[in-house]
Inverse folding.
């Protein structure tokens, strides 16, 4: 299969998913809707990156820049959601007051996000982007070649970052690279379920550690709470240790996968044709 046909079909479905999640978030900006919006942004962005040679480069760059700005606007509301859940789980005396502060902070951050979401519909971005995403000369590249070019490079970057990660910021970067690799695998090598699940486990542990870190920073902004900060710090260290323990096996498996990714044995398959509103794309 040539990449042009598959790319056009894939990005169209992912664009529809993104438009649907923008609509949902406008009507109910709760934690689930916001999470699904962030996933939709990342998946669509990774599809554009994977097929950058298929579509007009100038258009793709503009789209990815706009997606990045939109995702940035979701960062603070998402951090507040994670902090609220963590504080509720802590059941510590100081948690209710801090949860209320996080809710106010989330409301303010969400007010900044809403205009950007409304502009999407007002400017008919879905229609404009769909029209711009027409395969060009690069569409004659095979899917196998596209996978060979992208997947080993992302895998090596993920392994490099994971091996040398030391600080909380380093670990957060590993998580980001893991998402890029995982979404690209799901798009180009969906049969690689063991690798995908391994990356997902690592992402989950890093996500929990990062949630503790970001919540500690927000609590510090509010003036601090020694008991809660100590609880979060202990939890962050625990999740980091679990990541490092899991990383040894994950990294070993992925190092062995690099050679296979350079020579994929199975062609990618198109994503589900189920109606957009019924598709669930979590994590």
């Amino acid at each position: 299969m040539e990449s042009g046909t598959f790319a056009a079909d894939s990005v169209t479905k992912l664009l529809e998913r993104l438009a649907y999640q923008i609509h949902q978030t406008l009507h109910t900006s709760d934690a689930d809707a916001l999470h699904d919006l962030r996933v939709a942004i990342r998946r669509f962005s990774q599809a554009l990156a994977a097929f950058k040679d298929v579509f007009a480069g100038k258009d793709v760059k503009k789209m990815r820049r706009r997606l990045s700005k939109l995702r940035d606007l979701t960062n603070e509301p998402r951090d507040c959601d994670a902090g609220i859940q963590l504080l509720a789980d802590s059941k510590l005396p100081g948690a209710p007051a801090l949860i209320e502060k996080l809710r106010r902070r989330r409301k303010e951050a969400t007010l900044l996000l809403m205009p950007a979401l409304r502009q999407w519909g007002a400017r008919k971005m879905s229609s404009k982007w769909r029209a711009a995403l027409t395969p060009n000369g690069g569409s004659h590249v095979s899917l196998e070649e596209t996978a060979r070019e992208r997947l080993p490079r992302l895998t090596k970057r993920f392994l490099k970052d994971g091996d040398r990660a030391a600080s909380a910021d380093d670990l957060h970067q590993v998580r980001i690279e893991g998402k890029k690799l995982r979404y690209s695998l799901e798009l180009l090598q969906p049969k690689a379920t063991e690798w995908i699940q391994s990356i997902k486990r690592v992402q989950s542990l890093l996500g929990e550690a990062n949630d503790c870190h970001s919540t500690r920073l927000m609590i510090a902004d509010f003036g601090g709470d020694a008991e809660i900060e100590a609880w979060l710090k202990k939890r962050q260290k625990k999740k980091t240790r679990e990541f490092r323990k899991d990383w040894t096996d994950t990294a070993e498996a992925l190092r062995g996968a690099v050679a296979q990714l350079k020579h994929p044995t199975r062609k990618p398959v198109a994503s589900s044709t189920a109606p957009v509103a019924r598709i669930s794309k979590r994590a």
